[in-house]
């Protein structure tokens, strides 16, 4: 079916064309690889960003052409050493401005203290002691590993870790729970603060 262009520039992306002998409008674009003209009846199809090529073969060829020529190439060790020497010791002012006390959300270094409290040997020993006391079994549903089942177990604090620092390493304050049961507790995640304020 012949096409009649409504504009002089035939290769204008998104150009409207009228199908001769019909009241339908079509939209024309140019293939980014082979420069053939492509027609679509719906404006949404013509204006889609990913509609760059007329066929899958043209799309693959265009991608291969646009990809970096150095993609997958190994950089020689001497060149890596030269690049590293250029940036070694050069201060990064953006990072320097936002770290530590200058950062807008600085809260006195409490994050580091919390990380230290959860990653020390005493905490690891507490966790193992809770698991061994409960025989590696969830205290709510009785689930445990074995027979082809894999259960994720958590050592849960009955009274929240953050709000009761004196009970952090008390074995009596711990219980073994599977992940699903742990999520249902009143002290899980954001609910711990509400529990502590009661």
Task: Write a structural description.
This protein is α+β, with helices and mostly antiparallel strands. It has two domains: 64 residues, no CATH class; 85 residues. The chain is 33% helix and 14% strand. It contains eight helices and six strands. The chain has a four-stranded antiparallel sheet with strand order 1-2-3-4. It has a two-stranded antiparallel ribbon with strand order 5-6. It is elongated, with a radius of gyration of 32 Å. The relative contact order is 0.07. The N terminus is likely disordered.
Q: What's this, in brief?
A:
The protein has 198 residues and is α+β, with helices and mostly antiparallel strands. 33% of the residues lie in helices and 14% in strands. The protein is built from eight helices and six strands.
Q: What layout of secondary structure does this protein have?
A:
Blueprint (H helix, E strand, L loop, with lengths): L2 E3 L9 E5 L5 E6 L6 E4 L2 H5 L8 H11 L10 H11 L5 H6 L11 H9 L2 H13 L19 E5 L16 E5 H5 L7 H6 L2
Antiparallel strand pairs: 1-2, 2-3, 3-4, 5-6
**Percent range of helical residues:** 25-40%
Q: Count the strands?
A: 6
Strand composition percent: 5-15%
Mean pLDDT: 77
Q: Given the structure, what is the number of helices?
A: 8
Major β-sheet, in short?
A: 4 strands, antiparallel
Can you tell me the overall shape?
A: elongated
> Which runs of at least 5 residues are low in confidence (pLDDT < 50)?
1-23
User: How many domains in all?
Assistant: 2
Tell me the series of helices and strands, N- to C-terminal.
EEEEHHHHHHEEHH
Q: Strands of the largest sheet, in order across it?
A: 1-2-3-4
Q: Structural class, judged by helices and strands? A: alpha+beta
Radius of gyration: 32 Å
Gap between N and C termini: 77 Å
